Structure formats: C-alpha cells, structure tokens
Amino acid sequence: MKNKVTSILLSFVIAFGLWLYVVTNVSMEDEDTFYNIPVVMESETALLERNLMITYQSTNTISLKLSGTRSDLSKVNNQNITVKVDLSKVYDAGSQIPLTYTISYPGNVANNAFVELTRSPTYIYVSVEERRIKEVPVEVVWTGTAADGFMVDKENRTLDYGTITVEGPASVADKIQKAVIEVDVTDQKESIDQSYRYTLCDANGEGVDAELITTNVAEVRLQVKIQQVKEVELKLDVTYGGGSNEKNTTVTISPSTIRISGGEAVLKEFGDSILLGKINLAEIPDDQSMVYTITLPQGITNLSDVTEASVDIAFTGLTTKEFVVSEIESVNVPEGMEADIINEKLTVVIRGPAAELSLLTEEDIKVTVDFTGAEVGTATFKPSITLPEGIKTAGAVGTYSVSAAITQK
C-alpha cells in the first residue's frame, strides 16, 4: 500500500513538471528582436537586360521584432531568416526608389508561427542608373630620362592590351576617356618587359572615381626597348691607282655619319664605323657619283632618316690620254702549250699629271698577259699594264681584257 502511494505521488510530480515545462518553455508566448539580417537582391539579371544597374543601396541588413512561442523563436536567428528584394519590378533609372521586401523562415517553422511586431527599415531604397559598356585606349605616360647615351624606343613599344573595356554607371563611364599607365625610365639601361596597373582618367588625365566600374583586365603588360645610342662614321675601303692618290683625289661620303642604337654589348663589338663597300680608283676613269645602301647587322637599328649614302669622287690636276699598244707579251705559258693572243693591239688609257703624260709613248707602256694555270681553249685574260720607273704618279685606268687561244704543242 505504501509503495502504491509513493508511485502515485511520483507520477504526479513528473506530470506537473512536464506541464510546467510546456507552459513556461514551449507554448508560452514571447517576443524577440533579430538584428543584422542580410538583404538578398533578386532578379538582378532583369536589370541587366534593361541595361540598368544599382549604384546605391540604403542598407544591406534589416532588424526584425517577432512575437511567437518560445519554441519557435528558438529555431530562428539572423542567419536563417531570409529577406529578399525583387528587382524585376524596377523598369527605369531613378534615385532613392523605395522597394519592399519579403521575409521567410526556415522549413521547420510554420509560415504563420510569428507575428511581425516591427521591421526596420520599412523600405530598402535604391538608386538605379543606365549601364554603360565602352572601350578606352591605353596611354603610356613616360617619366624621367634614361641613362646618358641611351634611348627609350617609345614609338615601337607594345602593349598586350591596347584598349580596356569598362562597364558601369553611365554617369561615371562617360567621364572615362583613357587608361593611363605611368612608366619611370630614370637612369634605365635595360629594356622593359613588365605589367603595370593603370588609372582610369578623364580627357585631361585626371583620375576618375571608378569604384562602381568593372574592367576586363587589372594590368597591362608593356614591352619597350631601351638601347644605347651611338654616332658612327660611314667609310669606304679605297684602293688608289691609275694615277690617283690621297693628295689628288677627294672621296666625299654624304652623310658622313649616322646615329644607330642597339644593346650595349652589341654596339661595343660593332665599333665606330660602317664599311659601305670597296672601291678601286684605278677602275674609275673620271669624276663620278654613286650610291651605296647602308646595311646594318641584326640587333642594330638605324636612327637616321637615310638608308643610302652618296659617294662623290673627284680627281684634281689629273688628265687622261689614250695609247694604242701593239706589243703584248705572254708569260708563264704552261709547259707543252702555246698561247696565241688574238688581240693585235690594246688601247690603254693612262691618267696622271699632264706633264708626265707628255713624256709617255706607246713603246713605254708594257702590256703583259700571265697564262699561269691556263687550259686548252679560247678564253679572255686580264693583262697587267706597267709604266717606266721614271713615271711616278701616272697609271693605267679602267678594266682590260685580251683574248687568247691555248693549244697543245
């Protein structure tokens, strides 16, 4: 009997405790305020399709005061309460447009579980502008000066992006006219190959507040050569002859020098002059002008405006006289062969001072043909022409050949 009474009393205590728990913790009405609930903007693609974009939003969070059972209130917080703004209802640009928002709760809470006591703010205000997409050129602004004797080849610099695509509100994008990268070349000797961040600027080069602007690239890669500059002399390899020498012959090269650029090591190896070519004055009978192409090896750039040099040759105090030489001597005819010179005579032009030419006769001029290495057959051979020892400054001028038949004895 005693155990039965004890069991009844224990059951009563447990039941009372459960009732008290339900009354005080589960079904009892209460209220709570939730702060910093994130605002989610929906249907932004609808704005993009209308070529619009948000440039201002009054707040990113809201506060919400709710009334409901303690059990339901314990299931929600500022992370699982969803606040959504539908942007598909915005059709035109405008400032401070009031938008309402919807509130939803997690799936384990009934939609009608709470009474909304207050919401703050009541509206989300947005400013909407026309969206602009445009391309602007990249401009390089150079500062400083390269090392002495070096040049920055600004005209031939290359950029991996010549233009930048900017996207954003029209009021900002319309101000942007160029993307500027600033390059300091102070005391530079080496070529540049690196990426630079740029600044979006207006037409006057002033920076534009581009916080709401997006671009297709963050940096632009610049490649520019920085090379040594050098002035070099244009030269000819001159062989004097035919009565000409350094005193009575003037060889003028125009221009006499040009400016070139290249790597420091390359220019050091190149030297201080450019050889245009070779010339034998014994083959030039009188004053003459000619043109040579200025050629440079790979890695060296011609900075002058000329690619050709003119050469003027002038003889002073010299005259020419023709002599018909009847005797032509054969020497060094190969053993077992005979050389029959076909030319009976050879007209030779001698150039020199008139006083020396007046002393010469045909008999004084010796014409010799060297047949060393000749083979059977008819061929032309270059003769040598010599003058008497007493003639110091005169000489044969021009190019000559004689024909001869080579036969076996």
Explain this structure to me?
- The protein has 409 residues and is mostly beta strands.
- It folds into 4 domains: 22-122, Beta Complex (RNA Polymerase Alpha Subunit, Chain A, domain 2), CATH 2.170.120; 131-224, YbbR-like domain (RNA Polymerase Alpha Subunit, Chain A, domain 2); 230-315, RNA Polymerase Alpha Subunit, Chain A, domain 2; 319-408, RNA Polymerase Alpha Subunit, Chain A, domain 2, CATH 2.170.120.
- It has 6 helices and 32 strands.
- The chain has helices at 2-26, 44-49, 70-73, 170-173, 264-270, 354-357, and strands spanning 29-42, 52-57, 61-69, 82-86, 94-99, 102-104, 115-120, 124-143, 150-152, 158-159, 163-169, 178-184, 192-197, 199-201, 214-215, 219-224, 226-239, 249-254, 257-262, 273-280, 288-293, 300-302, 308-315, 319-325, 328-331, 337-341, 346-352, 366-370, 377-381, 384-386, 395-396, 402-408.
- Strands 2, 5, 8, 11, 12, 14 and 15 form a 7-stranded mixed sheet that branches.
- The termini are far apart.
